[in-house]
Amino acid sequence: MIARPARFVKPRRRAAGAAMRIEAFAAPTRTSGPSRKLYECMSMSMSMSTSARASASARGRPREPFRIAPRARATAVAFAAIAAVLYGAGASPALAAKAAVLTGTDVLARPGDTATLRFKVERNSLIRYDIRGAPVEFRFNGALIGTAVSAADGHADLRVSVGLAPGDYEVAGKVAPGASWWSPEARLFLAVRDRSARLAITDIDHTIADAAWWEVLAKPVSAVPPVRGAVGALRDIAHDATIVYLTARDDGATARTKAWLRHHGFPPGPVFFSDDVRAWFDPRPYKSGVVGAIRAAFPNVPCGFGDLPGDAAAYHDHGLVAFIFDTHGAGPFPPYARVYRDWVALRAANAAGRHPALAWAARFR
């Protein structure tokens, strides 16, 4: 099974001696308060308004009615708007006080592997506080296969034996009925492949999406175009390899990212996200860790695609040929990187027989 490297996690308090097991993480529920940022904005505006009223009274002027300072109110509205874009409208008002959101971690495993199925449970609010103690049901083809309780980091983990033939599957997760929290159903992608299966790894931002990560999150999915030739290229490559998407985006962007991939017709495949903001600034350590874990389980990974020097280094660390797209001037690139303008230019080079590492992609010519 391929999972996110454990060494890169968001700073948070961890339960001592926590271990992954089916019945694990039995712990009391930790309820989360309102958004700290909004609370601070509202508190600051209340203090400013109170001080202004006291000052006006001291000068003998009529006291103004209590109100929220316009700047603080605008800040609060802005944060709420960003939250709506990133995380959706949330649950119904009747359930808002205990509304949770689940995010599934995709899995890449071999038949017979013992794999960890994971859903992260967070409060559905502007700041996604991790929720501890929420029971999560795991279902496969509608049948309940197990229940796990979320730990202090919000992770509900279910260990299973992968008794499936190679193929693509989905596992559904949802907070169990009657719990203190409520959530809509979420899904994770389970890719089962033989050890000999060929894989190709690709980044997303500025590699297949012609935009930065924040543009992808802030705009409608239909308004973010793919890099020229990317959709057709990955469709053709997918005839001879499984496409694995590897991004430094935070896992809070899972639903929106997958919606963008579906909208533009990219081939299905597991998508791996970061759980650490440090990866936004230096993605190489995170990506190198994931690439190394994939390569250890599946040796036939000839190449990877990206747009940054760090992407090239992460692939090169584990013996992959690095194809880099200079779509936004992120160079200089290391000498071992094969640099092209876009996927159309790379297709032409492959048709000319310049890259043995892509010779197996018979349709990508």
Q: Could you outline the blueprint of secondary structure elements for this entry?
A:
Elements: H1 36-58, H2 70-87, E1 100-105, E2 107-109, E3 114-123, E4 135-140, E5 143-149, E6 155-161, E7 167-175, E8 186-192, E9 199-202, H3 213-218, H4 230-237, E10 242-250, H5 254-263, E11 271-274, H6 278-281, H7 284-297, E12 303-306, H8 309-316, E13 321-325, E14 338-340, H9 343-351
Parallel strand pairs: 2-8, 9-10, 9-12, 10-11, 12-13, 13-14
Antiparallel strand pairs: 1-3, 3-6, 4-5, 4-7, 7-8
Helix pairs in contact: 1-2, 7-8
Description:
The chain has 365 residues and is an alpha/beta fold. The chain has 2 domains: 96-192, Sandwich (Immunoglobulin-like); 199-358, HAD superfamily/HAD-like (Rossmann fold, 3-Layer(aba) Sandwich). Helices cover 27% and strands 23% of the residues. It has helices at residues 36-58, 70-87, 213-218, 230-237, 254-263, 278-281, 284-297, 309-316, 343-351, and strands at residues 100-105, 107-109, 114-123, 135-140, 143-149, 155-161, 167-175, 186-192, 199-202, 242-250, 271-274, 303-306, 321-325, 338-340. The protein has a 6-stranded parallel sheet, with helices on both faces. A 5-stranded mixed sheet has the order 2-8-7-4-5, with no helix packed on it. Strands 1-3-6 form a 3-stranded antiparallel sheet, with no helix packed on it.
